[in-house]
Fold this protein.
Amino acid sequence: MAEYQNIRTGRHRAFALHAHLVFVTKYRHRVFEDVHPTRMEEVMRAVCEDFECELVEFNGKDNHVHLLVNFPPKVALSKLVNSLKGVSSRRLRQEYPELVRHYWRAQRLWSGSYFAGSVGGAPLSIVRQYIEQQNRPL
């Protein structure tokens, strides 16, 4: 029961909702270098805070990222995802103009699709370990 130590509460609710999100770059281009994921995590952490969510774990490779997000029941996951992808794409494009060469045609960093998995069945420690292992050399 250690996984439920961090049950969050609200005015009339108690919850422990987690989602495993995966975003891939447009056309699966290998876009990210060492500096990009660090900045992207900062940006996505700020977006999560705006939604009263917690970015529990973040990692990725050159063409995708994994997030483990703890979110309240009032948050529509699709709206959170749209904001995470939109804000990160816009900020990275502004801060790293060299990225434009990877998505000049579509003007989008991320593919339109994404993966969102409920993390109720697997222990969070296993999901965290899986995400941590995604950061192998770029």
